[in-house]
Structure to design on (307 residues):
């Protein structure tokens, strides 16, 4: 018995060896940068012309500066609004598509082709996607041309979509929806295909409708994947940068409605204000962690109540 245990323990050691590359990469590229960011957030370090001021320890001054400045919370509001506007249609459309593709009774033809098509936007670089939409919705773009041809707007008076807060946010949300709903659909589809078909058969025998089957069987069983999608989407939404940056040329669009937290951070890093940039990074990290924890706790608590 002792010999068998020693063999198992020697065999299990190989698992730790395989974890070494991941642990090393995590420490070097994530843990150390995170620690240095937190460290420098307590220092005054910025560049004036060619002269670097600091680093000089100032304690919580950088945090006090960003929290008393309304720009931080305005950017946070913009980020959350655009993420919610893109995520709600994303999750609704993805659930519907996944339910259709996983339903064997529909016998959809060419489902493999359509799965590939809806995933294709996820493979396009965000910069290319932003340039495409910038051209589409510009004052001389095809969207304005179509509206003029239909008589919705007068000729010679195009709509400047990016000059208004609503237009900027809607275009950014639309882009995020188009880029990510395919990935979400594939994840949810994988979860639905893993559900035991006998559950559906038993529900149909009991006279349950397709709507009842979806909300009482499918949706509860794919809850873990929904939680994963919500948290990863939230993290990605809080890090929103390339799409609004390129679409609005770094200005944030009308009334700065498209200016996100990362754009605000980028402005401070571009001006070499590393102390303030570090404080913004730590704030972003804490907000993302708290929101992700709330989403996780809310979903897990709701599932426990239903049990």
């Amino acid at each position: 018995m002792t010999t068998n245990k020693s063999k198992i323990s020697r065999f299990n050691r190989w698992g730790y060896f395989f974890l070494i590359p991941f642990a090393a990469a995590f420490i070097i590229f994530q843990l150390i940068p995170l620690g240095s960011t937190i460290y420098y957030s307590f220092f005054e370090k910025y560049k004036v012309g060619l002269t670097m001021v600091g680093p000089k320890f100032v304690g919580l001054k950088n945090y006090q500066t960003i929290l008393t400045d309304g720009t931080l919370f305005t950017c946070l509001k913009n980020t959350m609004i655009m993420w919610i506007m893109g995520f709600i249609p994303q999750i609704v459309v993805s659930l519907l598509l996944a339910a259709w593709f996983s339903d064997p009774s529909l016998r959809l033809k060419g489902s493999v082709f359509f799965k590939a098509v809806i995933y294709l936007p996820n493979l396009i670089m965000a910069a290319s996607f932003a340039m495409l939409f910038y051209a589409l919705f510009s004052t001389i773009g095809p969207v304005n041309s179509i509206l003029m041809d239909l008589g919705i707007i007068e000729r010679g008076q195009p709509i400047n979509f990016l000059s208004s807060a609503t237009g900027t946010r809607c275009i950014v949300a639309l882009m995020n929806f188009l880029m990510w709903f395919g990935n979400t659909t594939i994840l949810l589809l994988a979860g639905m295909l893993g559900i035991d078909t006998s559950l559906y058969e038993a529900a149909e025998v009991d006279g349950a409708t397709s709507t009842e089957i979806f909300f009482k069987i499918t949706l509860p069983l794919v809850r873990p994947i929904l939680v994963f999608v919500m948290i990863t989407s939230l993290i990605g939404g809080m890090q929103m940068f390339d799409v609004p940056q390129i679409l609005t040329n770094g200005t944030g669009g009308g009334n700065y409605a498209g200016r996100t937290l990362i754009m605000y951070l980028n402005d401070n890093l571009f001006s070499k204000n590393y102390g303030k940039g570090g404080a913004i990074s730590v704030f972003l990290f804490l907000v993302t962690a708290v929101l992700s924890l709330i989403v996780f706790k809310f979903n897990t608590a709701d599932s426990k109540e239903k049990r």
About this structure: Strands lie at 43-48, 51-57.
